[in-house]
Design brief:
Helix content of chain B: 40-55%
Number of helices of chain B: 5
Structural class of chain B: alpha+beta
Oligomer: heterodimer
Distance between the termini of chain B: 64 Å
CATH class of chain B: Alpha Beta
Structural class of chain A: alpha+beta
Shape of chain B: globular
Order of helices and strands of chain A: EEHHEEEHH
Number of strands of chain B: 4
CATH architecture of chain B: 2-Layer Sandwich
Number of strands of chain A: 5
Strand order of the largest sheet of chain B: 1-2-4-3
Strand order of the largest sheet of chain A: 2-1-5-4-3
Largest sheet of chain A: 5 strands, antiparallel
Shape of chain A: globular
Strand content of chain A: 25-35%
Radius of gyration of chain A: 14 Å
Distance between the termini of chain A: 11 Å
CATH superfamily of chain B: Trafficking protein particle complex subunit 3
């Protein structure tokens, strides 16, 4: 019952700072997510909400996006329809991201290398998605 | 055992909850830390412009984090997409959290469309600092200007932010004004959003 999922965090300057894959179809998934960045760019300025739901489709895969106050984008490529699960996943990851950001030695916009963060994100993905 | 109680030991910062924390910090501790910051930077640079720039960069790092944290904590995860929205966010929410009170005033510049000013009678960082005559127009408020620039930049409103002293009648010390000059793209996007 594994559903395909690929999660990336893209900084304000359109540089991916974190990636997590459920299965190994890496290139195509990342390509789809990067192509969706343009749509996010426009959509982000039309609403003050952070969760932007499903903004793009590719075959049977959907792209959902969550934009933070600092314009860091959490993008999820998935084939399930569990919107509430996705929303709570994004909110939990947002809290983790803020904790990483509060580290004064972390340069905003640089790659997140913490293995604890990786473990927690994967655990959340298993729980919510 | 001293302090035996409900203190949980967290192995990792990611486990610790993002609480409101202590609302207040000792003023003297902050003033001391800030004076050391200024003095340290003074030894590293040769001129005033460079010193102001370093203070601004220090503030920029604070601003970027304050934006994310406050939007999550105090604004229930709503982003600011309009100019007036982000300005009032800085003027009230950010000021309240950082200095314990809202800023004294927020004004729109009369000469240029893209200029706004936040004024403060007695800016916290300038409270215990006196600037010698030979440093000219140096203003430690550059730190706060950096914080504001960090917040605006993070939210997608690039701007040039500077701090100035404005002498006021009837006040012994001059008022500090943070001057915000938005980039062209911000005004264009504002016009487009209507």
């Amino acid at each position: 019952m594994t559903s395909t999922a690929c999660f990336i965090i893209v900084s304000r300057n359109d540089i991916p700072i974190y990636e997590a894959e459920r299965e190994d179809a890496a290139q195509l998934h990342q390509f789809i997510l990067h192509a969706a960045l343009d749509i996010v760019q426009d959509l982000a300025w039309t609403t003050s909400a952070m969760f932007l739901k499903a903004i793009d489709k590719f075959n049977d895969l959907m792209v959902s996006v969550y934009v933070t106050a600092g314009h860091t984008r959490f993008m999820l490529l998935h084939d399930s329809r569990n919107e509430d699960g996705i929303k709570s996943f994004f909110q939990e990851v947002h809290e983790l991201y803020i904790k990483i950001l509060l580290n004064p030695l972390y340069l905003p916009g640089s790659r997140i290398t913490s293995s604890h963060f990786d473990t927690k994100v994967r655990a959340l993905a298993r729980k919510c998605l | 055992m001293i302090g035996a109680g409900k203190i949980k030991q967290y192995s990792n910062i990611l486990e610790k909850p993002l609480s409101k924390g202590k609302q207040e910090v000792s003023l003297s501790a902050f003033a001391f830390l800030f004076s050391e910051l200024v003095q340290y930077n003074q030894t590293q640079v040769d001129n005033i412009a460079e010193l102001e720039r370093r203070l601004e960069d220090a503030g920029y790092a604070v601003g970027a984090r304050v934006l994310e944290l406050l939007c999550h904590r105090d604004k229930g995860n709503r982003r600011e997409t309009r100019l007036l929205g982000i300005l009032s966010f800085v003027h009230s929410t950010v000021w309240k959290v950082l200095f314990g009170k809202v800023a004294d005033s927020l004004e729109k510049g009369t000469e240029h469309e893209d200029e706004y000013m936040i004024s403060e009678k007695d800016l916290l960082v300038n409270k215990f600092i006196s600037v010698p005559k030979d440093m000219g127009t140096f203003n430690c408020g550059a730190f706060v200007a950096g914080i504001v620039r960090g917040v605006l930049d993070g939210a997608g409103f690039p701007a040039v932010v500077t701090a100035h002293f404005v002498p006021m009648e009837g006040l012994h010390r001059p008022r500090t004004t943070i001057l915000i000059k938005f980039a062209e793209e911000v005004l264009q996007r504002e016009a487009r959003l209507g």
